[in-house]
Amino acid sequence: MCGIVGYIGQRNAFDIIIKGLKRLEYRGYDSAGIALINNEGKLNVYKTKGKVSELENHTIDKDISGNIGIAHTRWATHGEPCTVNAHPHFSFSESLALVHNGIIENYATLKENLQSKGYIFKSSTDTEVLIQFIGHIMESNDIDLLTATQLALQEVVGAYAIAVLEKNNPNTIIAARKSSPLVVGIGENEFFLASDATPIVEYTDKVVYLKDEEIVAINREKDIKIVNLYNVETTPEIKQITLNLGQIEKGGYPHFMLKEIFEQPGCIYDCMRGRINMEADNVVLSAVIDYKERLLNAKRFVIVACGTSWHAGLIGKQLIEMLCRIPVEVEYASEFRYRDPVINSDDVVIAISQSGETADTLAAIELAKSKGAFIYGICNAVGSSIPRATHTGSYIHVGPEIGVASTKAFTGQVTVLTMLALTLGKANNTIKEETYLSIVKELNNIPEKMKKVLELNNQIIELSRMFTYAHNFIYLGRGFSYPVALEGALKLKEISYIHAEGYPAAEMKHGPIALIDAEMPVVVIATKNALYDKVLSNIQEIKARNGRVIAIITEGDKILSNIADFCIELPDTIDCLEPLVATVPLQLLAYHIAVCKGMNVDQPRNLAKSVTVE
After folding, report:
1. Can you say whether the dihedral through the CA atoms of 408, 463, 449, 543 is positive or negative?
2. What is the number of helices (H) and of strands (E) in the chain?
């Protein structure tokens, strides 16, 4: 949540920073602001409520000169979205400006102490408290900014990624992180700073990912210097990023979300590449090879995740239990971390996160590690915090996901979970060879079947126009399709603001059936799997109450095509792989309903992509 961008070098900082902010706007878009030091040494701060485009308009007639600057796009935590609460914030003397991601949990105590010393606050934010605190330490002890930042952060409780400018030192940016990502890009006589690599990739492929409680001093005339809070210097570990500019542009699509939906066949192929052999008869995961005994000796798997990743975890539970015969629990990371869970040293905890920075999931990992569990991470963002915090794991390799509502990351997570279950099941002799081969072969066919589903886009556009009026939706599924129903409902509510709930189809009779009437659209995943007859009965119950049924069915199903009001036909596949195919039309349905309603699909209100706060 929230995005930070910084630049120091010989170029015009404003142009680079504004472009970078736009690429990070998926992390928050309540307000935006920028701090620049011009060539005369003046520290200019401009900020406004709204999106980065509003900030651009606000600065049209302002002094935006200078070769050093920091900026921020905000997802509000402390204080409502408004210009006063937007970042950057000044120190009391206005000699320092700071941008911040995260939450300072003890801000109230710090603020009260500063107020007793005569400090006045203009905003409602914890961020202003932090920069006032740094400024107080710096001035009262007559020390430099780096040292003052170290001392201040020793007293801070919470999560942060910060960048600070000092008016009297126009050659340096000080930045630090704890539980919130920050990456430094290294160019030719210039440096870049950002919450992730997307603003940097255009200028350099060399980056340094800051670790928790590290502080970096970026000086245009020197190499970067990294120290911890206690001034122990570390050698920067320079990595090369493989991200390319085309991956973070829309490529002719009206929205990133639609682009990412249509990218899924290629993404799933990339996810499997190098893991499924050319003959499609074997799956190899390096993490399982390296830690085979530890994984096979697990008495239990515990999956921790949030949101869409939690839905993927529900599918993973069924896959692992079916193919590996190992019990699996699926936990919301936010609940797991606070309920004193029973975790043993022979447990394996699977942590799933698209961004690799989800605060609750990171905290769940640390809790599980403290109890001796082995941690397996499933993540998309290379070099992010979760891969570094886990013992091993697998990247999903679906490329950057810019749309706030997750699409290709979900199917990538399900694909990795499928390969993990297959690999463990084979190694543990809990899966018949015939079953193993049939699933591996069919998994290899999934990208082509996804392409066939995407050919239904125009049909789904027409269907979507009929349901823009709806105020509520119910999504139903059974078995592997139940998590798909949850995910479909989540996509709709996220981007169209229509209330939607997912249920196991059999549970409809235990309450939700009271809502069924002629105005209630019900989406039912009713493909020809082992529970087909049961779901067919549930649809009959809906129709008996005048409900309007949108059925996701298998190609050639004449029975349901004569019962349901609307049908979307999918290619036939194995039950356990149906989520990879059935999710796609639900993503398109949510997308097109939101477009018909005139919503901002890529940046839905109140949401942000990377949830780095609790």
Report:
1. positive
2. 20, 25
What is the per-residue pLDDT across 396-445, written as a single tens digit (0 to 9) for each?
988 888 888 999 999 999 999 999 999 999 999 999 999 999 999 999 99
Phi and psi of 70, rounded to 5°?
Answer: -135, 155
pTM above 0.85, yes or no: no
Sign of CA dihedral 585, 591, 595, 596: positive
Give the bridge partners for 172, in sequence order: 219
Rg (CA), the chain: 25
Question: DSSP strand E in 265-371: where?
Answer: 300-305, 328-332, 347-353
252: left (phi over 0), alpha (psi -120 to 50) or beta: left
- Any idea how long the chain is? 614
- At residue 500, what is the residue type? A
Which one, of 593, 599, 602, 354, lies nearest residue 492 by Cα?
593
Q: Tell me, what amino acid is at 35?
A: A
Q: What letter represents residue 385's amino acid?
A: S
State the Cα–Cα distance between residues 332 and 303, nearest whole angstrom. 8
d(CA 420, CA 414): 10
Q: Alpha-carbon distance 560 to 61, whole Å? A: 62
Positions annotated as catalytic residues are 2, 609
